[in-house]
């Protein structure tokens, strides 16, 4: 055969879209569901927080696209959360809207630092009772505040005043046609949300929150109800990056405390949500430190845009899973749909009546209150149940940050009290020395009990104190036992003998 051998080359087949993205169909469908769930919630949380409605959409967009692309938890969805509504409202009222971006930015940078330092897993050590008490307290304040909004009335500032003023607000609403119409529309929205789950599954394909808002909007327009609608500024006008003047307030202890509150509460809520989402699917587990960094990156961007803070949101995350999502593509696409809506249809927001959004927030606040958990905790762990209730009450009476600190302090005190379990066994054979055996953990928390028992021993008999059963003896107890031994020996009896340990 003359000439060189001919060589046949064949190009490797280009992988198809289906090969590269095997779950694209499921993720695409799930992203539309999550978008429809997130849309009214983003707007409602923003309005309830006292900021332009568009800022809620901005946070939803960032939560989907920025946090959604990052590693951590592949299926949970982030955005503005009802759990931070109270804190954001207080921050905007105290420091002004321009300072909100600084607060969120600083909180995001702190989250990034904590994730880099591998502190994400430590949030799992926070007592569940404190977290549920925090959510319950937030839920109560949200419900109380949004009941005023549903009636078109201005709510008092503090949580306690909101609750205490409800009877008077109801009386005022009865005397106003506009207030009654507004309240009726809000109540109708809540009714649709509650009853939606009882409808056929095909109907439930439309998210209840979206259906409630659409129905309320149609009713408001059809009957020309005298209710307030959402104020629309436009996406670009609503975005206001923080100026240099706003950064000057970072020296304020009050703002530093608010930043710390944003950081701790947003991080705890996100990581507890991740743990809950992990229980709902069999896919990859959450990497907590990476998820904390994803939340930090998202909040950093939200801060630079002057938007609301973001957390992982269990409502959107569970909707994502129930819709059949398989990868993070669904949450990224939901952010894209929010961006397209905000860019192309911002005027649609102006049609939404405020009482409808108030109704959505009332329903969301109710779902934050863990009624079943309180009952089960009371039956099995009453101390934990009391911590939950005390945290919730403290948030309502004082404020959210200090309420959470009170809950954490109570949780630590309870743990320390239980860890200091100690037992004193006295053996008195009637003749010879009285033998006292201490076992467990001798700490200052149980010191009164120890001393009462030792001082009740006969003063005219020698005593042998056995410490071999102690796992821990702190300085306060050691000093107190030394003083007791000296007092007992001063009565003329033999000195107290200490075995298996020295004072």
Automatic annotation (TrEMBL):
The subcellular location is:
Membrane
Topological relation to the membrane, as annotated? Multi-pass membrane protein
Q: Which residues form the SLC26A/SulP transporter domain?
A: 24-391
Keywords from the named record: Membrane, Transmembrane, Transmembrane helix
Instruction: Name the InterPro entries on file.
Output: SLC26A/SulP_dom, SLC26A/SulP_fam
The transmembrane residues are 28-48, 55-75, 95-117, 129-153, 173-196, 208-228, 254-277, 336-366, 386-413
Q: What Pfam families does this protein map onto?
A: Sulfate_transp
Q: DNA damage: present as a keyword of the record?
A: no
The source's superkingdom equals Bacteria
Tell me, in one coarse class, where this protein mainly resides: membrane
Name the UniProt record assigns to this protein: Sulfate transporter
Native species? Streptomyces graminofaciens
Q: What is the lineage of its organism?
A: Bacteria, Bacillati, Actinomycetota, Actinomycetes, Kitasatosporales
């Amino acid at each position: 055969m003359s000439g060189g051998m001919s060589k046949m080359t064949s190009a490797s087949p280009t992988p198809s879209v289906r090969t590269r993205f095997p779950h694209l169909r499921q993720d695409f469908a799930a992203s539309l569901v999550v978008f429809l769930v997130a849309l009214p919630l983003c707007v409602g949380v923003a309005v309830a927080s006292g900021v332009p409605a568009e800022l809620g959409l901005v946070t939803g967009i960032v939560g989907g696209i920025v946090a959604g692309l990052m590693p951590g938890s592949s299926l949970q969805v982030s955005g503005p959360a009802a759990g931070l509504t109270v804190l954001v409202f207080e921050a905007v009222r105290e420091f002004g809207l321009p300072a909100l971006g600084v607060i969120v930015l600083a909180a995001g940078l702190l989250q990034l630092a904590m994730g880099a330092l591998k502190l994400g897993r430590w949030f799992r050590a926070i007592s569940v009772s404190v977290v549920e008490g925090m959510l319950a307290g937030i839920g109560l304040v949200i419900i109380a505040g949004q009941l005023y909004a549903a009636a078109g009335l201005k709510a008092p500032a503090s949580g306690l005043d909101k609750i205490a003023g409800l009877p008077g607000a109801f009386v005022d609403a009865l005397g106003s046609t506009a207030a009654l119409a507004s309240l009726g529309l809000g109540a109708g929205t809540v009714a649709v949300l509650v009853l939606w789950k009882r409808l056929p599954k095909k109907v439930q394909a439309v998210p209840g929150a979206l259906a409630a808002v659409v129905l309320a909007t149609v009713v408001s327009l059809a009957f020309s109800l005298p209710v307030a609608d959402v104020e629309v500024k436009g996406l670009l006008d609503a975005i206001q990056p923080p100026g240099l003047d706003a950064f000057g307030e970072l020296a304020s202890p009050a703002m530093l405390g608010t930043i710390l509150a944003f950081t701790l509460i947003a991080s705890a809520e996100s990581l507890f949500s991740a743990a809950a989402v992990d229980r709902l699917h069999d896919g990859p587990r959450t990497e907590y430190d990476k998820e904390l960094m994803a939340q930090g990156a998202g909040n950093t961007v939200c801060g630079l845009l002057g938007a609301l803070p973001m957390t992982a949101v269990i409502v959107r995350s569970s909707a994502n899973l129930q819709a059949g999502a398989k990868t993070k593509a669904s949450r990224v696409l939901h952010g894209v749909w929010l961006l397209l809506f905000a860019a192309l249809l911002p005027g649609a927001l102006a049609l939404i009546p405020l009482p409808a959004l108030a109704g959505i927030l009332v329903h969301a606040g109710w779902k934050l209150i863990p009624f079943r958990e309180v009952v089960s905790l009371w039956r099995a762990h009453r101390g934990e149940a009391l911590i939950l209730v005390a945290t919730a009450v403290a948030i309502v009476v004082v404020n959210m940050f200090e309420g959470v600190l009170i809950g954490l302090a109570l949780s630590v005190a309870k743990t320390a009290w239980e860890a200091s379990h100690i037992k004193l066994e006295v053996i008195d054979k009637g003749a010879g020395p009285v033998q006292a055996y201490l076992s467990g953990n001798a700490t200052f928390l149980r010191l009164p009990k120890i001393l009462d028992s030792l001082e009740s021993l006969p003063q005219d008999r020698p005593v042998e104190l056995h410490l071999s059963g102690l796992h821990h003896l702190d300085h306060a107890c050691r000093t107190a036992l030394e003083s007791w031994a000296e007092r007992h020996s001063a009565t003329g009896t033999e000195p107290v003998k200490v075995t298996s340990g020295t004072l």
